[in-house]
Amino acid sequence: MNASDKTETPAISIEGVSYNYGARKALDDVSFKVWPGAFTALLGANGAGKSTLLSLITRLFDTGVGKISIDGKSFKEDGAKALGPLGVVFQQTTLDLDLSVRQNLKYFSRLRGMSSKFANQRIDETLSSLEMLERIDERVRDLNGGHRRRVEIARAMLHKPKLLLLDEPTVGLDIHTRGVIVDHIHKLAKEENIAVLWTTHLMDEIWDEDNLIVLDKGRIIEDGSVKDVLGRVGAPDITSAFESLIHGEEERLR
């Protein structure tokens, strides 16, 4: 189904968003939508503006120009409740290393105002789905990087978000662990109808059935299904398409 055929509310709508660090423009008139049930990869090299965009979505930075709506609500118009449908996995870990897995998740559930019964149920469900339930009482400090990342994904899913943001979540992980996490998030999008926005610079994390947004130097230079993007660029695969797009953008800016 094409985006133009959609009648449901997008999980997130970005409209004309720009952001500067002093004189340097980090984002330039960025607009796109992410839909329920879709895995959307935001692909760009380091410094393209991916983390800046996620910082604006999560309100770590204030959106000066443009509008960001999550499930039809924007922070400017609806306040903090606009962030309610959002689950986030940041690039840098934000777990308390000296607490157990259970304690970290319980603490987050209280911040979310979840009842103890529902929180316990969701903790068991999310950890089980990530094959981490047997580690529930281990200190986070004693877990390896891949297992810590699984705990962060479980935490982001506790309140059943409609939109899951992941900022380069596999950085520093081994190939097997990366594959397990990529598979799990694709499964979540499909089976639980969650919208996923996954930022990456790694082509092998993007599947043929995904949606693809290519960000370069703060500008979106492609947006569509992987199949459509490859067709427009005339490339056999994502790596070739990305290289062609970046080269074309460099030529345009000369």
Overview of this structure, please?
The protein has 254 residues and is α/β, with parallel strands linked by helices. It folds into 2 domains: 3-85 and 162-253, 3-Layer(aba) Sandwich (Rossmann fold); 96-160, no CATH class. Helix content is 36%, strand content 24%. It has 8 helices and 10 strands. The protein has helices at residues 50-57, 75-78, 101-111, 116-129, 145-157, 175-192, 226-233, 238-253; strands at residues 12-21, 24-34, 39-43, 65-70, 73-74, 86-89, 163-167, 195-200, 211-216, 219-225. The strands form 2 sheets. It has a 6-stranded mixed beta sheet, sandwiched between helices. The chain has a 4-stranded antiparallel beta sheet with strand order 2-1-4-5. β1 and β2 form a beta hairpin. α3 packs across α4 (116-129) and α7 (226-233) packs across α8. The protein is globular. The protein starts with 11 loop residues before the first strand and ends with a helix.
